[in-house]
């Protein structure tokens, strides 16, 4: 299960802040390996406004077993004070022209981000297919909400922590943007270190008719996906396992409430609403900052 330290429901507000969470942040205790594994499993538990734009879909997956291979455990938290600064701004989706349309607006033809993704993949270790999804989500939000200014690098930082860019548990991200096997977290059944979230989807997305589980490369709770589902690849479907859809859905959530994700206050508010853990946000910061700098160096060289 991808590591998230997921917090309970938060509500985006118009000024870019979030309402108080219903539970405190994680604290380390003896038996840290097990505690962390259980405490960080809940995925993207985000709620609040915004209806679904289209009919969502997903094949009914089999609920996966719990594993100890947690992507976030190997990520170092950046030594940065929350709210003090935002990660360096990457050249927007590879320097794509502001008029470049996202995949969902291009029913046919090549992907203008393909060359950029291959170049940046070589210096960041992010799969080119995942980079195309993150860059496309930036383009989509640039079109839908230009004031948000979300960067592909922030989405990549979250994607690394949540599922190692769709590669969690040995999965391989396919050309169609779907992992070779569904990415499904542990049951949120109220056991030690895990919030109790009873089933909301009849097992449609997570294969579990009893308790919800976080699903897909960006680790959405099924009920959250129902609110923030997005069509990132233009197939008129929203699938949390498909990385274009998942990245666009995550971008929509992060931009909620008029946030400016390029400002320090907006960036920290958005990421902490995705997961109300300072350590989590510091890890995303470190990843996003380094991804952006690496991309800048590659493009400059």
UniProtKB/TrEMBL annotation:
Residue numbers spanned by region Disordered: 1-28, 88-114
Pfam families: SLT_2 (PF13406)
Membrane spanning residue stretches: 34-55
Keyword Transmembrane (UniProt): yes
CDD domains assigned: Slt35-like (cd13399)
Family annotation (InterPro entries): Lysozyme-like_dom_sf, MltB-like, SLT_2
Biased composition (Low complexity): 1-24
Keywords linked to the UniProt accession: Membrane, Transmembrane, Transmembrane helix
Coiled coil (residue ranges): none
Domain Transglycosylase SLT: 214-258
Entry keyword Coiled coil: no
PANTHER family hit by this protein: LYTIC MUREIN TRANSGLYCOSYLASE (PTHR30163:SF8), MEMBRANE-BOUND LYTIC MUREIN TRANSGLYCOSYLASE B (PTHR30163)
Protein name as it appears in the record: Lytic murein transglycosylase
